[in-house]
Amino acid sequence: MQVLHDITEDIRALAHRARHVAVLSGAGISAESGVPTFREVQAGLWERFSAEDLATAEAFACNPDLVWTWYRWRQALIQQVQPNPGHLSLAAWQRALNRRGGSVTIVTQNVDDLHERAGAEVLAHLHGSISAYRCVDCGEPHELPRPDYDGFQSPPEPDPTPPCEHCENGLLRPGVVWFGEMLPVEAFEAAAEAIRRADLVLVVGTSGIVQPAASLPLLALERGTPLVEVNPEETELSELMDYCVRGTSGQMLPALTS
Ligand code: BJW
């Protein structure tokens, strides 16, 4: 494993030679847009809670209004922020490689839509989407108006969780994957296939703590496919990498992909 603090000619050459690239992204890629990462300390009403404690079915069952409001506030914040140069450069690279008959396949653990708003196509949102809703009882999908919180302000007091208008029995929940829940099987299999097919795999802005997403880079390792991490910090996955680029995705991805 080689640790780099800038994009060197070697690594740029690796990126230029690749025809089929797979990217596994995590919360860090959206950090420079202003979306807090999952494992940093929260602010305002939320500072007493860790994100890991709120992202569970048990937390929702115990205190649905609290968990509901946390998600609506995060959705409001995500709507208010913009894609950053990390998202934009991956989208541009995807278009450029597509034109040359290659591909950049993006697999994200993020529940935001910043890759898409940057103009990229995303193969799989492994942990779902923060703007999708369904009933906890009957599973009926629901569309809701955008939250009217100001995501930049101190988060509001808990709001009541809306009931399902379809079965009139259950409450609505966000369409995300909580701890202890299965990932969408087709999305996970498509992601695994993209990593197996790739001739270069980038792992960007993820701590590599959460399974099974964190095991996807092992599929590249098994095949000897070059693995490159972009993250300012060492992670659980760093040891698997050929190169660890120690910098932010907003700075390093434009240099790597141009
Ligand atoms: C920058 C940056 C910048 C900062 N530029 N970088 C095997 C062993 C042990 C446990 C398990 C296991 N298999 C399964 C489990 C249990 C569990 C798990 O993994 N637990 C771990 C905590 C140990 N997994 C599950 O429960 C999964 N389900 C499952 O396995 O089902 C099968 C099953 C069912 C029943 C019983 C048993 C098994 C489901 C996992 C779902 C995860 N969901 C969440 C919440 C989504 C909704 C929401 O957003 O609220 O997904 S948790 C949270 O973590 C979220 C994220 O997508 C995910 C990953 O986090 P990520 O993206 O890595 O963010 P951070 O914050 O951790 O890291 C940010 C990184 O960015 C850092 O490294 C920074 O340095 C970096 N960074 N600024 C680049 N500018």
TrEMBL record:
The active site is at H127. CDD domains: SIRT5_Af1_CobB (cd01412). It catalyses: N(6)-succinyl-L-lysyl-[protein] + NAD(+) + H2O = 2''-O-succinyl-ADP-D-ribose + nicotinamide + L-lysyl-[protein]; N(6)-acetyl-L-lysyl-[protein] + NAD(+) + H2O = 2''-O-acetyl-ADP-D-ribose + nicotinamide + L-lysyl-[protein]. Its cofactor is Zn(2+). Substrate binds at Y71, R74. Zn(2+) binds at C135, C138, C164, C167. SUPFAM superfamilies: DHS-like NAD/FAD-binding domain. Belongs to the sirtuin family. Class III subfamily. NCBIfam families: PRK00481.1-3. 2 residues (Tyr-71 and Arg-74) present in a large hydrophobic pocket are probably involved in substrate specificity. They are important for desuccinylation activity, but dispensable for deacetylation activity. This is NAD-dependent protein deacylase. It comes from Nesterenkonia rhizosphaerae. The lineage of its organism: Bacteria, Bacillati, Actinomycetota, Actinomycetes, Micrococcales.
